[in-house]
Specification:
about 300 residues
Length: about 300
C-alpha cells in the first residue's frame, strides 16, 4: 500500500510541474522549495541518529556522491525535463529505472546477463529512442520535447546509479539517516546558487489553484512519497518495487488528459508499449535468476 500511494502521488506531480512552470514559476524555484522543505523534514533524522556518528570516511564519500546524484541528477534534472516536455512522456520514461539499475549494476560489478534481461533492456531503450526521435522536430510553445525527454532520461540514470551505489550504506545506517545526510549535503550545495529564486517569494500570493498545486508538489509530491517509497522498499524486493512504477504514467496520463494539457499520440503508445514490455522482461529475468539461484543452493 505504501508503494501504491507513493507512485500515485509521484505520478500526479508531472501534470502539476507543467502547469506551474508554464504560467507561474520557473523550475528552479520549485526545485529550491522542494530541497528546503525536504531538508527541514529529513535532516533531523540524521542529526539525532546515533548511527550518523559512526559513518566512516569511506562511507561518507559514497553518501556525498550519491547526494549529488539525488539532488542535482534526479530532482533538478527531472524538474527541468518535465518543464520542457509533456507529463505523459516524462512519466513513461521515468519507468525505465529498473533497466538502468540493471545496466549500472553490471558496470559496477560485471556479471553474465541472461538473454531475457538483455532483450528487455534493449526493447525498453528502443522505446525511449522512439519518444526522443519523434519529439526531435516537435515543440510545445518555446520548449523542446526531445530535449525535455533527454533530461528526464538523465534523471532516471542518476536515480538508478543511486540505487546501486548506496545499497550497502542504506543497510548499515538506515534509510532515514542516509536521506538526512542527502539533504544536509544537498542544501549546502544548492542554497548558494538557488536561494535567491525563493528569497521574498510568497506562495500565498499565487491564485488558489496554482497555490494548491505548489503545496501538493512540495509536500504530497516530494516528502510524503519519498518516505513511503522507502517504507515500501524495505518490505519488498527491488523486483516487486519496480513493478509499482507503472502506476505513475497511468496517473500522469489520466490527469493530463482530464486537464487538457496534452493528448496521447502514436509515439506515446509505441514508446510506452516497448518500455513497459522491456521492463517486464528485465523483472522476469530477475525473478528467473533468483529462482535458479535458490534451486542451485538447495541442491
Amino acid at each position: 500500500m505504501a508503494l501504491v500511494i507513493a507512485n500515485i502521488l509521484f505520478g500526479a506531480n508531472f501534470s502539476f510541474y507543467v502547469s506551474l512552470t508554464e504560467y507561474y514559476l520557473n523550475f528552479q524555484q520549485i526545485f529550491m522549495l522542494q530541497v528546503t522543505v525536504a531538508a527541514a523534514f529529513f535532516i533531523p533524522f540524521a542529526i539525532f541518529s546515533k548511527r550518523s556518528y559512526k559513518i566512516t570516511v569511506e562511507d561518507f564519500g559514497s553518501i556525498f556522491i550519491v547526494a549529488i546524484l539525488v539532488i542535482y541528477g534526479w530532482m533538478y534534472m527531472l524538474l527541468w525535463g518535465a518543464s520542457e516536455t509533456s507529463p505523459i512522456d516524462a512519466s513513461t520514461i521515468a519507468t525505465l529505472g529498473p533497466v538502468f539499475t540493471l545496466i549500472v549494476a553490471h558496470i559496477v560489478q560485471p556479471q553474465r546477463l541472461s538473454k531475457v534481461k538483455t532483450a528487455g533492456a534493449v526493447v525498453a531503450m528502443c522505446g525511449a529512442i522512439v519518444l526522443l526521435a519523434d519529439r526531435n522536430n516537435h515543440a510545445i510553445s518555446s520548449t523542446n520535447e526531445a530535449f525535455g525527454n533527454a533530461l528526464v532520461l538523465c534523471a532516471v540514470v542518476a536515480i538508478a546509479a543511486n540505487t546501486v551505489l548506496i545499497n550497502r550504506q542504506l543497510k548499515r545506517y538506515g534509510e532515514l539517516t542516509i536521506m538526512g545526510w542527502y539533504y544536509i549535503i544537498g542544501f549546502v550545495m544548492v542554497a548558494p546558487f538557488f536561494w535567491s529564486e525563493i528569497e521574498g517569494f510568497n506562495p500565498l500570493g499565487l491564485p488558489l489553484l496554482p497555490m494548491l498545486e505548489l503545496f501538493y508538489v512540495i509536500f504530497l509530491g516530494t516528502v510524503l512519497p519519498m518516505w513511503l517509497l522507502y517504507v515500501g522498499s524495505s518490505h519488498l524486493t527491488a523486483v516487486h518495487t519496480a513493478l509499482y512504477r507503472y502506476i505513475q504514467p497511468v496517473v500522469a496520463a489520466m490527469l493530463t488528459l482530464l486537464r487538457g494539457q496534452n493528448i496521447i499520440d502514436r509515439a506515446n503508445i509505441i514508446g510506452a508499449v516497448m518500455i513497459f514490455s522491456g521492463v517486464i522482461f528485465v523483472v522476469a529475468g530477475n525473478m528467473i535468476g533468483r529462482r535458479a539461484t535458490r534451486g542451485s543452493s538447495y541442491q
